[in-house]
Structure formats: C-alpha cells, structure tokens
Design goal:
This is Elongation factor Ts. By secondary structure, this protein is of the alpha+beta class. It is built from eleven helices and six strands. It folds into two domains: about 45 residues, Ubiquitin-associated (UBA) domain (Helicase, Ruva Protein, domain 3, Orthogonal Bundle); about 150 residues, Elongation factor Ts, dimerisation domain (Tetrahydropterin Synthase, Chain A, 2-Layer Sandwich), CATH 3.30.479.
Length: about 280
C-alpha cells in the first residue's frame, strides 16, 4: 500500500481541487510521492480539457471594478452552480478581473491573449483551472467604459450564488449616487441601448411593419393606423432605450429626466447577466 496519510489527501485536494477518489488513485500510482501525484492529476486533467470544450457553460459569475474614470466588467462561466459558488472559482474570477483592469482589456479575446506576471496567458490559466476543477471554464464577455464618472453595480439573483448581473454606467456631471441609481435601474430593466439612435434603422422599420400588420389583424380603422403604429414603435423604444425608460425609483419620470435634474448626462453603459 502506498505510504500517504489522510492529511496528504486533504492537502493535495486543496491544492488541486481534484476529487477524493482521483487524489487517492494519483497517490497510489505515485507511491505516496506528493509532487508526482500532483503531476499525475494535472496530466489527467489536461487530457480532459479537449473533451469538455463542447460542454455548455450556463453558470458562473460577473465581476466588476470601477473608479478614477474607468470601469471593467467580466463574465466568467462554468458548467454548474456548485462550482460557481466555490472559493476556488471566485478566486479565479478575481484574478481574471485584475488582469482585465491591468491590461485595459475591452473584449474577451484581448484578455485571453494577455500575459500574466508568471508568463502564462489568461487562456492557459483557464485551461489549468479547467483541468483541476474538472469543468469547462471560459471568459465569455468583457466590457470597459471610460468617462468623467464610472460606477459599477453587482446584483445577486440568489443569496447562495455569486453576482449574476453586473452593470457599468458612465456619466458626465451630476454625482456618483445618481449614476449608481441608474446602474441599479439598468440591472433591473435591462435596456439594450443608450439612445434610440443606437438602434439600427432596419430594426426600427421591422418593428413598424409588425406594428402595422398587428393593428390590421386586430381590425383597427385604416385612418387610425399611423397613430397606432407610432404609439407601438414608441413603446418599443421605451422598452429598449435606457434614456426613455420610466426610472425605477420614480416611474413618472424617464431616466433622461432624472439625469437632467441631477445635472448629469449618461455617456455609456454595459450590462451582463450570466448565461444570457
């Protein structure tokens, strides 16, 4: 029987995040040699990375940092909520966020290609985590904003999970609290664009066609169609456009009105929800 103790098993599990039986098998194969057992686990784990590439990552977390006129938001995904709420995955996400901030990465590809202080790329870091944790792990999205004021907001959809929704908002003028209130609004109401000019003309025209066809199907009078169509298109804008949405804290005012009263202008935002 290999010469190792329960303390050795515990130490190797903590170091590699491998399962109990995998650790025992590795120690048996290595005849109790901790360093050799760790190498065995790493090799076996790396062999499984390719097999996991096709798996679905629908869990994970969002992490953000903002201040000094800039903000970064990252979405790090895994396969199960069990891994998502683990300390090891959380520490990995923090490391990924730190690198995104340090390199000013604005997209996932740039972040994955960037080099950490130990010479590894972020992609290699994730592959190692993939091997040791035993799940597919990926950086799905990265956003970066710059502006006079940039704030972040993270929201938990469940108390036992890490943040599942993350928001960045940049503003000019006004105060930080107003920007933070808008960030909380974005988290709750999920606008897709800042202004209606950010929606391409083809999308608007399609909404107009659908609104007209629907009104005709409902038997609305021909003379009333232009007004009905315009009303429904405006309703579409209110759903999609941040500045035209009724403000969460004061629904009788639009977000634009609240910002204007605070002497602020929204210059950009980003919103990630895990898996969407």
């Amino acid at each position: 029987m290999a010469n190792y103790t329960a303390a050795d098993i515990k130490a190797l599990r903590e170091k590699t995040a491998a399962g109990m039986m995998d650790v025992k098998k590795a120690l048996d194969e290595a005849d109790g040699d901790m360093a050799k057992a760790e190498e065995i686990l790493r090799v076996k784990g790396q062999k499984g990375v390719t097999k996991r590439e096709g798996r679905t990552t629908s869990n994970g977390l969002v992490a953000a940092r903002a201040g000094a006129g800039e903000g970064t938001l990252v979405e790090v995904l895994c396969e199960t909520d069990f891994v998502a709420k683990g300390e090891r995955f959380g520490a990995l996400a923090d490391q990924v966020l730190e690198q995104a901030v340090a390199t000013k990465a604005a997209d996932a590809d740039a972040l994955l290609d960037s080099t950490l202080s130990d010479g590894k790329s972020v992609k290699e870091l994730l592959d190692e985590a993939n091997a040791t944790i035993g799940e597919k792990i990926e950086v799905k999205r990265v956003a970066r904003l710059e502006g006079e004021n940039v704030v972040s907001y993270l929201h938990k959809t469940s108390p036992d999970l890490p943040a599942q929704i993350g928001v960045l908002v940049s503003t000019a003028g006004g105060d930080e609290q107003t920007a933070r209130d808008v960030a909380m609004h974005v988290a709750a109401f999920s606008p897709s664009v800042l202004t209606r000019d950010d929606i391409d003309a083809e999308t608007v025209e399609n909404e107009r066609r659908v609104a007209e066809a629907t009104a005709k199907e409902e038997g609305k009078p021909e003379a009333a169609l232009p007004k009905i169509v315009e009303g429904r298109v405006n309703g579409f804008f209110k759903e999609q456009v941040l500045l035209e949405q009724p403000f969460a804290k004061e629904p009788k005012k639009t977000v634009a009105k609240v910002l204007d009263e605070a002497g602020a202008t929204a210059t950009g935002f980003a919103r990630f929800r895990v898996g969407s």
